[in-house]
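Hi R.,

Here's the chain you asked about this morning:
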Amino acid sequence: MIDTHCHLDLLKKEDLEETLRDKSLEYLITIGYDRKTIKNAIRLSEEKDHVFCAIGFHPHEADHIKEEDFEWLKNIASSRPKVKALGEMGLDFYKDYADRKRQEEVFRKQIAIARELGLPIVVHSRAAEKETLRILKEEKAYEVGGVMHCFTGSYEFMKACVDLGFYISYSGIITYPNAQALREVAKKTPTYRLLIETDAPFLAPQPVRGKPNKPSYLRYTAEVLAQLIPNSSFEDIERMTSENAKLLFNLMSDGKRETITYTINNKLYINLTNKCNLHCAFCQRERERNFMVKGYWVWISRDPSVEEVIKEIGDPQKYEEIVFCGYGEPTLRFSALKEIAQWVKEKGGKVRVDTNGLMFTFLPKEKLRELKGLVDVWSVSLNAQDKETYNHICRPAQEDAFEKVVEFIKTALQEGFQVVATAVDYNGADMEKTQELALSLGAKFRGRIYESVG
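And the predicted structure, written out as tokens:
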């Protein structure tokens, strides 16, 4: 795991020694927020290979910051390679320990330094959502990106920050009994923008609340996120947040390493192709093309061979199921799908195919029978309650695409397949009516949270 925000110099001696020995903590980002703690952060990062730092001036310090402090900060950040971000910086209109106007000035000047140096920023925002967003936009902070540290804001604020290219970091606060509203926001945070932190020695999570916090307690936050994010295990949260942190802070990472097969929650997913015959508005291929799915870069430059896929699967019985799923439509490679599924079944595995349901637009209905006994479950993207909404959301090339999806569901059920119709709660989709349609066809139904991919 990676603790993306902690104050190592503020830990008790024994907690610091324990933290630095803890092999479960791959990297630590320690924070300097004034001259003294910045020096401490630099020292600690240079003493330990797995410790890096972010340095800047906290909004509480704004009244004490002089012009020469900005030049000092820039010189340190530009000359020390272990500095991976500037901050924490931002606005705190809750405690108002510093003049609000001065907070804004200090915030803006630090963003300017970050842009000049090409470093991401670590943002503190409390009771200042509107003002924070305004400054991030006006100062073009999206050019370097960063993280909204210890996020406790609204869904709207989270979404706006993500749209600006920022990561969202959750702390032990999400474990508190009175944090249900925040947990709902966390549940809807795009997994490719998700980070975790402790803010140690502050904000100890609920199981150890009242004690000084320390980075090893990061697991309590990860455990809660595993319960919130659909189809996620603790290991999934650990992997995805670590990969996200490595990308943000430019740490050692596989980065955008292409993935043919990938494991999530003890299910093995097969990325059979990137080709797709839809242009869904909610899909990453139609947006910023960030194909990071729970710590995996789910994109391939070529279609893998049957032999490559089988080699990567290994023993299918190790997994709960083998799922054909990616940013492409697996039935477009019907022959490969059939051959791999047959091999999986022969080896005792279970097969699910996630499809957009448009197979009958390019293959005769009779071809579906060839997959009987090979595919256990079809997960079909219905995505809308009617043709008009479907065309608006999924943007098919075929005029009769919605009818073809409905026909696929009916035919698959008639042939004896298990069918689960799915829908993303994207703007315009009526989830209740879509579920009613799915059930009326005889299929099961599963709703998916927009931006919660994987």
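The chain has two domains: 2-249, 261-448.

Let me know if you need anything else.
M.
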